[in-house]
Every structure is written in structure tokens, then in C-alpha cells.
């Protein structure tokens, strides 16, 4: 009992001292503004080697408020911008005292004595002067050199744990040229990666890339004396802006770590035997900054038929017939084969003339759809002859720029003769009514004689029974009538389904445009805008394949009707912005996207 009583008395005394301390401290803190403020500064330690770090400490006595001021910058040392702060309160000879400590990390840059001169800070409404302090930096000893070499090896291993390598086949490109490149993501086999969060993304607007699809995986690849797993993405790279340009790629991978101390961001994680059994962290992987010169296309000797094709191509045309009847269409396929910028290649110009009515072409690509750099581009034109006789299919001129030889070349298709027959003579299908011949004379009955049997009733004319009065005739006619009604109903249903498909695609594109405005995604907005203009304008003019229309073909359709010039000019300007934004998006303001969305809706209502 006595022992328990003494314990209770000890606890009561502790509580009493705490209450007494707080009661004395609070009035002192409230009155601390009346005390004199002073500042101290020092380096801890004041002497270090070039391989070690120090701390620059500032102590403010008499206040715990955050000071305001600008720390001087010394050429021989590096001072961090984020200090660690510590606030304390105590009694010194019965007088309450508070203070604020700020510690700045110091990293030396060169050997010698470095001094921070006196400088001023402001605490509340009071301006104080921080006294000057000096630090001495000496040469590194052997232990520091070993430590520094270990840190450099650690940084090198960390930078080589995962990286992106971009392979560009050419040292320079021409504006608008497309080349086939390769992106390789190297992942060290000792790096516990759970997954790749996303394919590599391009930084910068001077180039455009084709879509990155499923990568190719290669294991046991050796580089820098390490074994890697390499993920490769072939891609088509198109230069958009002339000048000295830079390009860089980045991606994110998920890495398993045990703790923050064993994270790949702060330690040699690959030496941790327990690495890979903890949580996951996202690690950003980047490529080196690649400098690429983009040259402008030469203006000298540029042919008039050049429309932006860059590469090495051959061109030919293939008609599906050499003899037709007047009014029957003929299909003409223009085939362009080779290597170059197929993704940005426009259709060759083929205009209507006195012999043919020519519609806008449909196009398709055969070849490497990943890079869109090598293959065959097909443009299909529908030609309708306007007069009979022996006529020629128009010759098509195709010009391109060869970046290897740095020259323009022009290729022409051969002349295809076409025989157009006049066709059969039209015959009026209206039936001719037969006129009943009438006779004004009466048949004489003087030559008639009486037979033994009664001949029956005599008739002036023989009566013919017509098919109109026949039930079998009408039964046979009802069969094609019902067939015609059925075909008409089937056509109406197909037309309704086509309208429903149009409304569905129109609704999806409008939704994409609104979402891009919400997320400020200009690339998605202009891609959806271009598809919507193709859909609505092509459907309005009953084009068989609206999604295949190019910007020039859309303008031609608008000009073929009675649309206003201002409307055509505005739509053409929006199409140019959409095409250019495939290479460099310049409109970033979400308010501008919203205004442009309303303007596009008004323009589509004016189409006639």
C-alpha cells in the first residue's frame, strides 16, 4: 500500500509540473513580441571535403514567425531552396524563450573558403540582419574518393536500369517527309517491373507519329555489360516544322519496391535481396534528347503538279474496260507504289471535261499500315462518258520530291483509248390501240340458203375476247405488283437504316468534340471535327463513301452547289486547321474550342 501511494504521489507531481510549465510558458509567449529579436548563422560543420555536404543554419531568437528574405547565392557552393524548420520554446533563468531554426543543405562546387555575406530578413514588421558566415572546402581524401566513385557507379546503373532508344534512319529530314523509325524500351532483367503503363509518348510538336501498336519483345539483349528485355515499336515519323528541331520520348513503368528507402529513386535498389516483395511505384523512363535538322522543300524547279508527295514512287492507271455504252460508268484505278509519306499523300488531280464526268476518288492503302511508309496507295475514280465515239481516258500527271537525290520528278500514266457505243434506239413503250374496222355495207342474204338444221343466230362481226376481261391475266399481273411493293418496302427499310447509322455516327462525333472541349484535348477535337465534316457533307451530297473524302474533295462538293463563298471559305479554313493539327496543335484555349464548336454547327446548317 505504501508503495502504491508513493507511485500515485509521483504521478501527481509530474502532472503538477506540466500544468505549471504551460501556465508560465503561455504568458511568456504572448509577451515575446516585447523582447528583443536577434539572429545567428553558422555552417555545421564549418570545414568539409569536396565530396561531403554541410548545413547552413539560421537561428532567430524571440519569434517563431516565418521570415521573409532572399538568400544570397555564392558561386563556390550550392544552397537548397527548401530548408528544414524547427520551432522550440524553453525557460532560461526563469525567462521564457522561443526560437526558429532553419537548416539549408550545402553542396560544395570547388575547393576554397566561401563566405555568405551579411544579408537582411524581415520577421513580421521588424527587419533583421543575418551575420556573415564562412565555410572551408578542402580536397577529398581517399575515403571520399571511394564513396564518390560508388555514388557515380550507382547513378550510372540507375540510369541504365531502363531507358528508351530512338533509331532515326536519317540525319536530316525535309518538311513533310515521312521516315520509318524504331523505338526501343530497354528494361534491365534485374529490375522487377510488373507492367508497362503506356507506350512511349512524343515530347514536342515539330514531328508527328503514327499510332504505336503492340510491341515486339526480345529477351537476353546485351548492352552496357547488362542483360535486357527490349520492347520495340516501329513507327512512322513525319517532320512538320522546318528548322533545327528536338524530339524526346518518355513512358512509365510499374516497379515493385519494399520501402521508400529501397525505392529506385533514392537507393541502389538492385542490391536489395528483398527487392520486389513490397508495393509498386511508377518510374518515368526517358530517351536522350535527339536533335534533327528539318529542311524546307526547294522552290527551284518545283513542278505545278506537285502536291506534297515526298519519297520515291512509280505511278500507273488501270481502267476496268476499254469499251462501254454511252452513259455506262467506267472505273479507273490510279496505283502509286514506293516508299514515302503515304499518310499525307493527296489524290492526283483529275477534273471533268467535255468527254467525261468524273467524281471524287475513293482511296485505300496496301502495305505496312504501322509506319505507312512503304506500300501501295490506290485511288479509284468513276468516269462517265458524255458522248459516243473513240475517246481517250485523261492522262494523269503525278509529281514527287525524292529526298535522297533532293530533286523533283514527274511521272505520267499512259494513254488508254476507250470506245463508247451510242447504245440502242429508244422505242416508245406505249401500246397502240387497235381501231375496229367498220363496214357501211350490209351483208347480202340473197345467196344464203336454208339448210336442214337451224344454223342459229347470225352475227355481223366476229367478237374477240380481250385479256383485260380474263381472270388469269390479272392473277399473273398481281405477282410483279407484289414483288415491286416488296422491293419498295425493302429499299425504304434500307434507307431508314442508313439514316439511323448516319445519326448514330453523327452523335458519336459530337460527343467526342464535347469531351475534347471538357478535357482541353485539341488533337481529339480536330480529329473528330474532320470526320464529322466528311460524314455530314458527304452524306448531304450522297457520296458512296464519305469517310474517304479529302479536304480538297469536300471543297469541290461545296463549290458544285449553290453555297455561299463565305461558308465555303470558313469550312475550308477549318479543314486546313484540322489537317495541320495532325503535326502541330496550336489552339490550347478550351474557350476557343467551344466557340469553334458552335461556329462549326452554324456552318453545317448553311450547307445547300
Domain count: 4
Structural class: alpha+beta
Low-confidence stretches: 1-10, 12-34, 260-277, 434-441
* Tally of individual helices: 7
Name the average pLDDT. 79
Helical content class: 25-40%
- How many individual β-strands? 32
Largest sheet: 7 strands, mixed
Strand content: 35-45%
Radius of gyration in whole Å, from Cα?
Answer: 44 Å
Short synopsis of the structure:
With 608 residues, the chain is α+β, with helices and mostly antiparallel strands. 25% of the residues lie in helices and 36% in strands.
Please provide a written account of the structure:
This protein is an alpha+beta fold and 608 residues long. The chain folds into 4 domains: 32-139, Immunoglobulin-like (Sandwich), CATH 2.60.40; 156-295, Immunoglobulin-like; 306-421, Immunoglobulin-like; 502-605, no CATH class. It has helices at 2-30, 142-159, 471-518, 522-540, 551-559, 565-580, 590-605, and strands at residues 38-44, 47-49, 54-61, 68-69, 77-79, 84-92, 95-108, 112-116, 119-123, 126-130, 133-138, 162-167, 172-174, 178-188, 193-196, 201-203, 207-209, 216-223, 226-239, 243-257, 279-286, 290-295, 306-319, 323-325, 330-340, 356-358, 362-367, 374-385, 389-393, 397-402, 407-412, 416-421. Strands 23, 25, 26, 27, 28, 30 and 31 form a 7-stranded mixed beta sheet that branches. Strands 13, 15, 16, 20, 21 and 22 form a 6-stranded mixed beta sheet that branches. Strands 1, 3, 5, 6 and 7 form a 5-stranded antiparallel beta sheet that branches. A hairpin with a 2-residue loop joins strand 9 and strand 10. Helix 3 (471-518) packs antiparallel against helix 4, helix 4 packs across helix 5 and helix 4 (522-540) crosses helix 6 (565-580). The longest helix is centred in the C-terminal third of the chain and has 48 residues, at 471-518. It is elongated. Residues 1-10, 12-34, 260-277 and 434-441 have low confidence and may be disordered.
Amino acid at each position: 500500500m505504501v508503495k502504491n501511494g508513493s507511485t500515485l504521489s509521483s504521478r501527481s507531481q509530474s502532472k503538477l509540473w506540466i500544468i505549471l510549465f504551460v501556465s508560465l510558458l503561455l504568458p511568456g509567449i504572448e509577451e515575446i513580441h516585447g523582447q528583443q529579436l536577434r539572429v545567428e548563422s553558422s555552417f555545421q560543420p564549418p570545414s568539409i571535403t569536396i565530396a561531403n555536404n554541410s548545413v547552413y543554419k539560421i537561428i532567430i531568437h524571440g519569434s517563431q514567425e516565418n521570415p521573409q528574405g532572399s538568400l544570397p547565392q555564392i558561386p563556390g557552393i550550392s544552397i537548397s531552396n527548401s530548408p528544414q524548420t524547427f520551432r522550440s520554446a524553453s525557460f532560461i533563468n526563469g525567462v521564457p524563450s522561443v526560437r526558429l531554426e532553419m537548416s539549408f543543405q550545402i553542396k560544395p562546387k570547388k575547393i576554397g573558403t566561401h563566405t555568405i555575406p551579411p544579408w537582411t530578413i524581415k520577421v513580421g514588421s521588424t527587419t533583421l540582419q543575418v551575420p556573415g558566415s564562412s565555410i572551408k572546402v578542402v580536397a577529398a581524401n581517399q575515403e571520399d574518393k571511394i564513396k564518390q566513385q560508388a555514388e557515380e557507379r550507382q547513378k550510372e546503373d540507375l540510369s541504365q536500369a531502363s531507358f528508351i532508344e530512338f533509331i532515326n534512319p536519317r540525319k536530316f529530314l525535309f518538311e513533310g517527309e515521312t521516315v520509318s523509325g524504331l523505338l526501343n524500351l530497354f528494361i534491365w532483367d534485374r529490375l522487377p517491373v510488373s507492367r508497362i503503363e503506356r507506350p512511349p509518348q512524343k515530347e514536342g510538336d515539330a514531328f508527328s507519329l503514327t499510332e504505336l501498336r503492340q510491341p515486339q519483345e526480345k529477351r537476353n539483349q546485351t548492352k552496357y555489360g547488362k542483360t535486357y528485355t527490349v520492347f520495340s515499336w516501329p513507327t512512322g515519323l513525319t517532320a512538320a516544322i522546318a528548322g533545327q528541331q528536338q524530339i524526346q520520348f518518355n513512358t512509365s513503368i510499374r516497379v515493385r519496391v519494399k520501402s521508400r528507402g529501397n525505392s529506385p529513386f533514392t537507393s541502389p535498389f538492385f542490391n536489395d535481396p528483398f527487392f520486389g516483395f513490397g508495393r509498386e511505384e511508377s518510374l518515368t523512363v526517358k530517351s536522350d534528347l535527339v536533335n534533327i535538322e528539318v529542311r524546307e522543300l526547294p522552290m527551284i524547279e518545283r513542278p505545278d503538279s506537285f502536291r506534297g508527295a515526298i519519297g520515291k514512287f512509280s505511278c500507273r492507271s488501270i481502267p476496268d474496260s476499254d469499251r462501254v455504252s454511252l452513259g455506262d460508268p467506267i472505273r479507273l484505278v490510279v496505283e502509286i507504289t514506293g516508299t514515302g509519306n503515304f499518310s499525307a499523300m493527296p489524290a492526283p488531280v483529275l477534273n471533268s471535261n467535255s468527254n467525261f464526268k468524273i467524281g471524287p476518288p475513293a482511296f485505300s492503302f496496301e502495305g505496312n499500315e504501322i509506319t505507312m511508309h512503304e506500300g501501295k496507295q490506290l485511288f479509284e475514280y468513276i468516269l462517265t462518258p458524255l458522248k459516243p465515239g473513240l475517246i481517250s481516258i485523261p492522262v494523269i500527271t503525278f509529281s514527287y520530291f525524292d529526298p535522297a537525290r533532293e530533286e523533283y520528278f514527274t511521272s505520267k500514266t499512259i494513254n488508254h483509248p476507250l470506245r463508247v457505243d451510242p447504245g440502242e434506239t429508244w422505242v416508245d413503250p406505249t401500246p397502240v390501240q387497235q381501231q375496229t374496222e367498220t363496214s357501211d355495207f350490209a351483208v347480202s342474204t340473197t345467196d344464203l340458203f336454208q339448210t336442214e338444221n337451224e344454223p342459229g343466230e347470225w352475227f355481223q362481226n366476229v367478237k374477240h375476247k380481250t385479256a383485260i376481261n380474263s381472270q388469269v391475266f390479272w392473277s399473273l399481273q398481281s405477282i410483279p405488283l407484289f414483288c415491286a411493293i416488296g422491293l419498295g418496302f425493302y429499299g425504304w427499310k434500307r434507307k431508314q437504316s442508313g439514316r439511323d447509322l448516319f445519326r448514330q455516327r453523327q452523335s458519336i462525333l459530337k460527343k467526342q468534340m464535347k469531351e475534347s472541349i471538357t478535357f482541353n484535348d485539341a488533337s481529339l477535337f480536330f480529329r473528330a471535327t474532320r470526320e464529322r465534316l466528311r460524314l455530314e457533307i458527304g452524306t448531304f451530297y450522297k457520296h458512296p463513301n464519305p469517310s474517304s473524302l479529302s479536304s480538297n474533295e469536300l471543297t469541290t462538293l461545296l463549290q458544285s452547289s449553290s453555297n455561299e463563298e463565305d461558308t465555303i471559305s470558313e469550312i475550308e479554313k477549318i479543314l486546313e486547321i484540322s489537317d495541320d493539327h495532325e503535326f502541330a496543335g496550336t489552339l490550347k484555349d478550351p474557350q476557343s474550342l467551344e466557340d469553334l464548336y458552335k461556329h462549326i454547327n452554324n456552318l453545317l446548317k448553311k450547307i445547300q
